[in-house]
Each structure stands twice: as structure tokens, then as C-alpha cells.
Design goal:
mainly alpha; 17 helices; globular; Probable multidrug resistance protein NorM; MATE_MdtK; transmembrane
């Protein structure tokens, strides 16, 4: 008699996956809905405002990616200490994550505010696009530090299996963000008509509300890890060393990835405004599909981290196999979803026929790549993060992106003069290669790291 696939049979496991994945997916959907609706609303004003917003968002995408990597490294420790039941260590790691994030965000914000034109010029040569995005960029830079605190805290809360609180906070703040953006763009609800600058102001107000909610929960509501201001003043050499061991590779990995994404924008920016607009629209559909995948990868990171922290390595391996199956199913679902709604989404945009045709082709390519993206997401931001395999992630994501994909894309775009669609396909191969490597990397035991210390070892500080 044939044996079935070796996967989890415990209902509690699937309940845990759903309780984490669904709120995380909804949270991601809320985040992307702001970007999507901004793109659609600005697209109604023309291609220049839409392209200017996309270009001006690149510095934030870079810094937010770096901050995400930094705090994901801390979340590795928090998830495994959660499995051990050591909440004191969790508080100490959280304080380190917040301090480090604020410092990095502050440096970036100052650079962006002082040099907006130069920074916009990195991503586009179109002076009209650059001029349209300067005020937007300066205003949005004021949100970087607020985002740093909120991001560090909410990722840490998520690592303790609480995905509902970040969802509720995001539901409030993103709803306000969408309402204000619509009002400021078109002059509705008694608000002044400000176009692209109004989007920046709406985002700033929403970030202030988000930070206020985070601070209230952090200091007064959190039932497991109640922080005090004095916790952030406390130096911790032991845990800071551990934090750097896992956060530094994770941060560098995300930094390399987000800079790579920015480099993609540089490539498209030099292929013309039509290509920028088409890629912006195609990414909207990609983000819709990726919301589901981010929920699963986030859940896998927390669950695997907790299981390893508890010391049950064999069960962690079984859970990994189960997530592989779930990843395949979700990848197929998102592929069908993206291809099914592409015409509906394209209908919202006021764009030239050439832009429409290029965006349609890019969306089809994105849809066909969703299975590969499912596995890339599952390993790079999920299983391997939760297991503490962050150094390996850094190595292989760097080699694949900058050693293979980026040289091919630049050569194709500027040397061989390939069409934008061919260049787009080359860039999407990044997901395929990473997905294959991640699958084979996690077949043994080398990817599983025990990153926690016993309480006695932490008492030396």
C-alpha cells in the first residue's frame, strides 16, 4: 500500500497557519490597496503623475526593505524565544530592533530631504517626471522614522503569533490614507485639490495615526510584552551580538534585493515613460497575487521559528514539507487570479494603446511566474528566515540577483537592445532560480539553526 505525502495531520497546525496567514494576507492587501488605488487615481490624471509617484516611492521602498530585513532578523530571535516562553528576552530584542531601525530611517530621511532632485534623477531622466515628484518625495521622507518604529513593533508582535493587532492598526490607518488621498487628489470632502502632493500629505497623516496606535498598544495594551520607555535605554551586549548575527545578513539581503528592485526601475526608467507606466500597472496585479503569498510565508516564518525554539526539529521538518504543498496550491490559485482579473484592472487606467498593450503582456508574464514567486517567497521571507538561515539567504540572493539576473538584464536592455518585454522576462527569472535553490536548500537539516540562549546565559548581562 502506497504511503501518502508526509505532511502535518494536526488540526491545530492548520488553525495556527490560518490565524496568522489570513490577517497577514489582509494586512498586505491593505498596504497594496493604497498603492493600487493611488496608481489608479493618479493614472486618471495622466502618465506623468503616476510615473512620478512610482519613481518617488523608490527611496521608501529601499529603506522599508532594509528595515524589514533588519527587523526580520530580530523576529527570528523573538519567534524562537516565544517557543521557549522567554518574554524577557523578547522585550530586550524588541528594544534593540526599534533603536536600530530609527537610526537607519533617520539617516535616510535626512539624505532624501536634502537631495530630492538628485535622488529622483537616479531613477528617471524625464525632467517632467522628476519635477512632479520632488515635493511628494520630501513630504513622504518625513514618514520614514514613524514607519521604522511601527514596522519594528508590528513584526515583533507578529512573531509572538499575534497577527490581529497589526491588522487592526493597518485597517484604521490605511482606510484613513485612502480616504485622504482621494480627497486631496481630486479636491473632495472639502479638501484642497493637490494632485500628487496630496497623496504625500495623506500618507503623512496616516503614518502619524499608525504610530500613535502602535505606541498605545506597546506601552498600555500588549498582554505578553508590555514595554516601558526605560527598556529602550537599556544596553544589552549579549542579545545585541545575537541580533546582529541574524539581523545583519537579513538586512543586507533585503537591502540588496530592494536596491535590485530600484535598479529594475532604473532600467525601465531609461526605456521610456511608456515602459515605466506599463510596469507600474503590471506590478499592481503582481501585488494583488503576492498578498496571499506573503500571508503564507509570514505564517511559515513564525510557526517554524516557534517549533525550532521549542526544540522539536523533526516536527519542523514535517511542517516544512507541509508548507511546500501549501505553497504550490496557493501559487496555482494566484496565477489563475492574476490572469482572470487583468482586463478588469487595465480598464481603470487612462493610458495610451501602446502602454495598454505592453502592460497586458507584462501582466500575463507575472501571472505565469506566480508559482515560482510562491516558492521564492516561502523560502526567502518565510521558512529560512524563521529557521535562522539568514546568512545563506544573503549569499544566494546576492549571487542570483547581481551575479546572474542583473548583468543579463542590463546587457539585454542597453547592449543587445532587447524589447522591454524580453528584459521584463529576464528580470522575472530571479524568482524561478531562487525558488529552485530554496527548495533544494531546505531538503536536509543545514538550514535549521537554534538561535536562542538559555536564561542563565542571558543573566551575565
Amino acid at each position: 500500500m502506497k504511503r501518502g505525502i508526509a505532511i502535518e495531520r494536526d488540526r491545530y497546525f492548520y488553525g495556527s497557519v490560518l490565524s496568522l496567514a489570513v490577517p497577514l494576507a489582509l494586512q498586505s492587501a491593505l498596504m497594496y490597496s493604497v498603492t493600487t488605488l493611488n496608481s489608479i487615481m493618479l493614472g486618471a490624471l495622466g502618465e506623468v503623475p503616476m510615473s512620478a509617484s512610482a519613481i518617488a516611492d523608490q527611496p521608501f521602498l529601499i529603506v522599508s526593505g532594509i528595515l524589514r530585513g533588519l527587523t526580520l532578523g530580530g523576529a527570528v530571535l523573538i519567534a524562537q524565544y516565544w517557543g521557549k516562553g522567554d518574554t524577557d528576552a523578547i522585550k530586550r530584542v524588541l528594544a534593540i530592533a526599534v533603536r536600530s531601525s530609527v537610526l537607519l530611517a533617520l539617516i535616510t530621511a535626512v539624505a532624501v530631504i536634502l537631495l530630492p532632485t538628485q535622488i529622483m534623477g537616479i531613477f528617471s531622466t524625464d525632467k517632467e517626471v522628476i519635477n512632479a515628484g520632488i515635493n511628494y518625495l520630501r513630504i513622504v521622507a518625513l514618514t520614514y522614522v514613524m514607519f521604522a518604529v511601527s514596522n519594528a513593533y508590528m513584526l515583533s508582535v507578529r512573531a509572538t503569533e499575534n497577527a490581529k493587532t497589526p491588522l487592526i492598526i493597518n485597517l484604521v490607518t490605511y482606510s484613513v490614507n485612502i480616504f485622504l488621498n482621494y480627497g486631496f487628489i481630486f479636491g473632495k470632502f472639502g479638501l484642497p485639490k493637490m494632485g500628487i502632493t496630496g497623496v504625500a500629505i495623506g500618507t503623512l497623516i496616516a503614518r502619524i495615526i499608525e504610530l500613535s496606535c502602535v505606541l498605545v498598544h506597546m506601552f498600555f495594551i500588549n498582554p505578553h510584552v508590555r514595554m516601558k520607555i526605560s527598556d529602550f535605554m537599556h544596553k544589552d551586549k549579549v542579545l545585541f551580538k545575537d541580533f546582529l548575527s541574524y539581523a545583519a545578513p537579513s538586512m543586507l539581503s533585503e537591502m540588496i534585493f530592494t536596491i535590485g528592485m530600484a535598479a529594475y526601475s532604473v532600467i525601465f526608467g531609461r526605456l521610456g515613460t511608456t515602459t515605466i507606466a506599463a510596469n507600474t500597472i503590471a506590478e499592481v496585479l503582481h501585488r494583488i497575487g503576492s498578498t496571499f503569498l506573503s500571508g503564507l510565508s509570514g505564517a511559515s516564518s513564525v510557526i517554524i521559528g516557534k517549533t525550532i525554539g521549542s526544540g522539536d526539529i523533526q516536527r519542523a521538518k514535517l511542517q516544512k514539507k507541509t508548507f511546500n504543498v501549501l505553497g504550490m496550491g496557493l501559487g496555482i490559485f494566484t496565477m489563475i487570479l492574476v490572469l482572470s482579473i487583468k482586463n478588469l484592472v487595465l480598464g481603470f487606467y487612462n493610458i495610451a494603446p501602446a502602454t495598454h498593450a505592453m502592460a497586458d503582456q507584462m501582466i500575463i508574464i507575472n501571472g505565469l511566474c506566480m508559482i515560482a514567486f510562491a516558492y521564492e517567497s516561502l523560502y526567502v521571507t518565510g521558512l529560512q528566515v524563521g529557521s535562522g538561515d539568514t546568512t545563506n539567504i544573503l549569499i544566494y540572493t546576492t549571487v542570483i540577483m547581481w551575479g546572474i539576473i542583473m548583468p543579463l538584464a542590463f546587457a539585454g536592455a542597453f547592449w543587445f537592445k532587447f524589447s522591454p518585454i524580453v528584459v521584463f522576462i529576464i528580470l522575472k527569472c530571479d524568482y524561478v532560480i531562487k525558488g529552485f535553490y530554496g527548495y533544494f536548500r531546505t531538503r536536509g537539516s543545514k538550514w535549521i539553526k537554534q538561535v536562542t540562549r538559555d536564561k542563565e546565559a542571558l543573566q551575565e548581562h
